[in-house]
TrEMBL record:
<dbReference type="Pfam" id="PF11716">
    <property type="entry name" value="MDMPI_N"/>
</dbReference>
<dbReference type="InterPro" id="IPR024344">
    <property type="entry name" value="MDMPI_metal-binding"/>
</dbReference>
<dbReference type="GO" id="GO:0046872">
    <property type="term" value="F:metal ion binding"/>
</dbReference>
<feature type="domain" description="Mycothiol-dependent maleylpyruvate isomerase metal-binding">
    <location>
        <begin position="17"/>
        <end position="158"/>
    </location>
</feature>
<dbReference type="InterPro" id="IPR034660">
    <property type="entry name" value="DinB/YfiT-like"/>
</dbReference>
<protein>
    <recommendedName>
        <fullName>Mycothiol-dependent maleylpyruvate isomerase metal-binding domain-containing protein</fullName>
    </recommendedName>
</protein>
<dbReference type="InterPro" id="IPR017517">
    <property type="entry name" value="Maleyloyr_isom"/>
</dbReference>
């Protein structure tokens, strides 16, 4: 199926495999590894695992049990709300042992898998993906893919913290890159260009590919069937590691530009390299 967000991605079969890699990783950690700092400000490995546990429990509570969860405070923005409720949960899980959190992840994971298996990809999203669009509802497949990227990225942040490579084979990473690139049209929204103008974004590496955005009458849309590099008004080429770190602000846009090759319309390449696929 194809929508204004581009072709659907079915990440549902990948959750089991990603979780198995995470549990294997956590089971191999030494006690001191749990206190190592991560790229997430103020969070160590233990905290990131607590946050992943929060994600599991939040989704099961919401979809399976219809539980609304924490409510917004007066005049609270979405980023502030998420920072607050995530921080509260992480602080609470500091009372939990690493062994207990691993057991909880292993216990709750199959229940979460059942939720994904029962989901219709073309149904409305449980939670709209704001970094892909703010003026139209998201499909369920994009919401589910966003959740997959959340788990994958947090696993990589743990791996970085404890200096362990892995879980980045193309079968696991390619859907992450593809999902993040659905943010490209929304990322270009402030750059007005004539209808038909195209932007090309190449991600190199085994998990990479090529994505296009085309200017319509009043917005940018994904894909440009039949477009060629000669027709692109702007082109960005970067590697897969740079892309996922940029999209999650593991690195800042200036660093991403230093690692990339930019060509053509400078305002377009500058906007494209601010691509963000998390709420911040």
């Amino acid at each position: 199926m194809t929508t204004s967000f581009g072709p659907a991605i079915d990440t549902r079969p990948l959750f089991v495999r990603e979780r198995r890699a995470l549990l294997d990783l956590l089971g191999s950690l030494e006690p001191g590894d749990w206190g190592r700092p991560t790229v997430c400000p103020g969070w160590d490995v233990h905290d990131v695992v607590g946050h992943v546990l929060n994600d599991y429990m939040r989704r099961i509570s919401s979809v399976r049990d219809g539980w609304g969860g924490a409510v917004f405070a007066d005049d609270e923005t979405l980023p502030a709300y998420l920072a607050r409720v995530n921080g509260v949960f992480v602080e609470a899980t500091r009372q939990c042992s690493p062994r207990l959190m691993v057991e909880l992840l292993a216990h709750l994971g199959p229940q979460l898998d059942e939720i994904w298996a029962d989901a219709r990809l073309d149904a409305p999203a449980v939670v709209d993906v704001s970094w892909a669009s703010t003026d139209e509802p998201s499909p369920a497949w994009l919401d589910i893919a966003r959740e997959y990227t959340e788990f994958w990225v947090h696993q990589q942040q743990i791996r970085d913290a404890v200096d362990r490579p892995g879980a980045d084979e193309p079968e696991l990473l390619s859907p992450v890159i593809d999902t993040f690139m659905r943010a490209l049209p929304h990322t270009l929204r402030t750059v007005d260009r004539p209808q038909g103008t195209t932007m090309r974004f190449d991600v190199t590496g085994p998990a990479g590919g090529t994505w296009w955005a085309t200017r319509d009458t009043d917005r940018w849309l994904p894909d440009a069937p039949g477009a060629s590099s000669e027709e692109a008004a702007a082109r960005v080429t970067t590697d897969q590691d740079t892309l996922w770190r940029l999209a999650t602000r593991g690195i800042l846009p200036d660093e991403a530009r230093r690692r990339s090759v930019l060509a053509g319309d400078e305002p377009l390449t500058t906007a494209a390299t601010t691509l963000l696929a998390v709420v911040a």
